[in-house]
Design brief:
Blueprint lengths: L31 H9 L7 H11 L4 E4 L6 H12 L9 E4 L3 H14 L8 E4 L5 H7 L5 E4 L1 H9 L10 E5 L1 H4 L2 H12 L6 E6 L5 H9 L4 E4 L10 E8 L5 H18 L4 E5 L3 H13 L4 E4 L5 H12 L5 E4 L12 E6 L6 H8 L9 E8 L2 H13 L4 E2 L3
Parallel strand pairs: 1-6, 1-7, 2-4, 2-5, 3-4, 5-6, 8-13, 8-14, 9-11, 9-12, 10-11, 12-13
Helix pairs in contact: 2-3, 3-4, 6-8, 13-14
């Protein structure tokens, strides 16, 4: 079985994911099957957020969990879900929502890995862009449904996904799911669920509106917030590289492409994620890098879902060294070999910046994040992000 956890022994880890006490998952009083699943998946010792949140989640409390990107939140709600589920019935008991199709698929990978020792467990993904008839087949027996809001709403409306047995409702990347674009769907799905259910909401960044929103859904939620004043991962060194400003956007893009090619040629890295604010630029850049001999894949919302799945699979199986993406993968994507993140454009807000750079320091490993900045407005935007993140971004050394 493939390992989904990060192996502590393979490289140095930072203090924000490693606990100093010699505590194993055994001390969390988990069932034998879940402990076996953790072991099979390579999970050795709990991270600080796992140590705090799993016991509270297992007590049936509604939880709002905030911890940095890459510190093991998916494992938290997966363990709580697997300890809650009853496999001797065909009904759907746990519903997990994610803001993107890629995150939904990744949650499913973690859940099925951790549930590998559970006899008869049925966990399935339900995402847009895939055939509806396949979803109908999966829902004949499905204990844990993981999906995106649009497809889940469609399946409930169509009477295919029955909600009367759901006892645990999980929002992953909760801050994103509670933005305006998803709000109506989430409210509708919530209204279709039983009153008597447990709810978990997890996020790396925590805008203040989130608390008001979530407390409206939950019963006396318990807040678990780690690293509030220091949200950036400790193991990521942050830099910026300046390029000249030009009033024509394409001219700036060409300058940034030159700077990027120079960077990739002079820095040693295993795998690299490049973020672009625009879909069209992502594809153009992928063509440029492929022509220069860098095995590069591209992932953007305008692509067919099978192409998106294929691009993610290429990254995770090391068939490509570089993945260029829009903010589709700035959250939740866990690829262990990514140790360089490049922002082709300054992100639109500090939360997006933290999520993007968090791809390079998964589970306390060390990485580099470089933001390509044109003189003027972009520089001011990066300064503002530094202040909001309470972090320092240094000029890239020659």
């Amino acid at each position: 079985m493939s390992k989904i956890a990060h192996t502590f022994q393979d490289k140095a880890r930072t203090g924000d994911v490693v606990i100093s006490e010699a505590i194993s998952f055994d001390s969390l009083l988990l069932s034998k099957t879940v402990l076996n699943g953790l072991k099979n998946s390579g999970f050795d010792r709990p991270s600080p957020i796992q140590l705090k949140a799993i016991p509270l989640g297992r007590c049936g409390l509604d939880l709002i969990v905030q911890a940095k990107s890459g510190t093991g939140k998916t494992c938290v709600f997966s363990v709580v879900a697997l300890e809650t589920v009853l496999t001797d019935t065909a009904s759907t008991q746990i519903l997990v929502l994610a803001p993107t199709r890629e995150i939904a698929v990744q949650i499913w990978e973690v859940m099925t890995g951790l549930g590998s020792a559970m006899k008869g467990l049925e966990c399935h993904t339900f995402i847009g862009g895939m055939p509806l008839h396949e979803d109908r087949m999966k829902l004949k027996k499905c204990h844990i449904a993981v999906g995106t809001p649009g497809r889940i709403k469609q399946l409930i409306e169509g009477g295919v996904l029955l909600t009367d047995s759901i006892r645990l409702f999980i929002l992953d990347e909760a801050d994103k799911l509670l933005e305006e674009s998803f709000q109506e769907q989430i409210n509708w799905i919530y209204s279709m669920l039983p009153d008597n259910k447990q709810m978990l909401a997890l996020s790396a960044t925590y805008p203040e509106y989130l608390a008001d929103h979530l407390t409206a859904y939950m019963r006396n939620p318990t807040f678990l917030r780690l690293n509030i004043s220091d949200p950036a991962l400790l193991g990521i060194r942050q830099f910026y590289a300046l390029v000249p400003y030009h009033p024509i956007a394409h001219a700036v893009f060409e300058e940034k492409t030159k700077a990027l090619v120079h960077l990739l040629s002079s820095v040693s890295f295993q795998q690299c994620l490049i973020f672009s604010n625009l879909q069209t630029r992502a594809q153009t850049l992928a063509d440029v890098l492929n022509s220069k001999g860098w095995p590069t894949a591209c992932i953007a919302g305008c692509l067919d879902q099978r192409d998106r799945n294929h691009a993610m699979a290429k990254l995770k199986t090391y068939k490509c060294r570089i993945l260029i993406s829009t903010d589709l993968t700035s959250r939740g994507i866990d690829a262990d070999k990514v140790n360089l993140v490049v922002n082709l454009d300054v992100p639109k807000d500090h939360e997006t910046y933290l999520h993007r750079i968090g791809r390079a320091g998964r589970f306390g490993s060390f990485g580099i994040a470089v933001t390509l900045v044109s003189d003027g407005q972009e520089q001011l935007s990066l300064d503002s992000i530094q202040k909001r993140c309470n972090t320092q971004v240094h000029p890239l050394p020659v």
